[in-house]
Amino acid sequence: MDRLCVALIAFLCAVSSSQDGISAAEVELRVRPGDNITLYCDCNITTGVYIMWYRNCSHKYQPPLVISTTIWHNNPFPGYNVVWNPSNNSYDLLIENITGSDLGLYYCGTMETNVEKMEDDGGKGFLKQKGVYHYGNITTRISLAPTETQVPLNRTTTRGSDSSVQTTVKVSEDKVMLFGLTNSPANL
Fold first, then answer.
1. pLDDT tens digits, residue range 74-128?
2. Torsion angle, alpha carbons of 69, 71, 74, 79, to 10
3. Where do the DSSP E strands lie in the chain?
4. What's domain 20-144's superfamily in CATH?
5. What gap in Å lies between CA 158 and CA 105, rounded to an integer?
6. pTM, to two decimals
7. Per-domain residue ranges for the chain?
8. Sign of the dihedral defined by the CA atoms of residues 37, 103, 113, 138, in that order
């Protein structure tokens, strides 16, 4: 029994140390339907290295999404655009007109194609292509903002020395309400 535990622990340590997993801080981005957002990639490209964008969802019927800049000349994903960012030599992801199907965990990475010369059993040479993947340190969870929020306008209007008005806008899906609070020395 002790040998089995030692073997199991050794196996788990070997597997966990060989994984190039995602270990990054997660940022939550709350959006409203119809918003446009840009997700920034912290991976750099060089010759032969391509940016990949990934989305994982918790929706039952929403499959994961993989966007590769290697095939971007025919954009297969309406509403998703990769945007060149020269400041970090990378491609950011612009998501336009967000809907509920765009929610999920997004992260970027790189894919590099390595080519190896191999020989078959008959000594005949051939080339084998292998993709090497690395992941960035930024993960962004996109979720819907609450349907009702209170947004202060940060505006105080003063009329003379006897009153001031603070205005707050309350927004819900179907209506907008204005609230005013007037402080006047006459009312104190």
1. 677 889 999 999 998 999 999 999 998 899 999 999 999 888 888 888 878 888 8
2. -40
3. 25-31, 37-39, 49-56, 65-68, 80-85, 90-95, 104-119, 125-144, 149-159, 163-171, 176-183
4. Immunoglobulins (2.60.40.10)
5. 46
6. 0.60
7. 20-144, 149-187
8. positive
